Amino acid sequence: MSEASLRVGLIGVGVGARQLLKALTQQPRVCLTAAADVRQPALDRLSAEFGIQTFLSAEAMCDRANGRHARRGRSDERRG
């Protein structure tokens, strides 16, 4: 991946996102790095297919991307 890459984190990995993934991952300067969804099985499939970090909430994913740790005692901590 080149230095001028766009790192992408998806919020919601339903049908629409799955259709978008093919186009995103074919772009040489786009790097899919994370995804958030409330459905753990969907996140597990995405993690296995793309080797990305997954989260049970958009807030947890954004906190991680901004260098903040997920808040303790919440069920939305990082998975994968």
Distance between the termini: 22 Å
Outline the low-pLDDT stretches.
70-79
Structural class: alpha/beta
The second-level CATH architecture is: 3-Layer(aba) Sandwich
Radius of gyration: 13 Å
What proportion of the residues form beta strands (DSSP E)? 15-25%
CATH superfamily: NAD(P)-binding Rossmann-like Domain
Number of helical segments? Answer: 3
Sequence of strands across the biggest β-sheet:
1-2-3-4
Q: Tell me the count of domains.
A: 1
Spell the H/E element sequence: EHEHEHE
Work out the helicity level. 25-40%
The major beta sheet can be summarized as: 4 strands, mixed
Tell me how many strands there are.
Answer: 4
CATH topology: Rossmann fold
Average of the residue pLDDT scores: 82
Name of the CATH class: Alpha Beta
Overall, the morphology is globular
What's the arrangement of secondary structure elements?
Layout (H helix, E strand, L loop, with lengths): L5 E6 L3 H11 L4 E7 L3 H11 L2 E3 L2 H8 L12 E2 L1
Parallel strand pairs: 1-2, 2-3
Antiparallel strand pairs: 3-4
Explain how this protein is built.
Helices cover 38% and strands 22% of the residues. The protein has 80 residues and is α/β, with parallel strands linked by helices. The chain has a single domain (6-69), classed as Rossmann fold, CATH 3.40.50.720. Strand 1 (6-11), helix 1 (15-25) and strand 2 (30-36) form a beta-alpha-beta unit. It starts with 5 loop residues before the first strand and ends with a strand. Mean pLDDT is 82; it is low at 70-79.
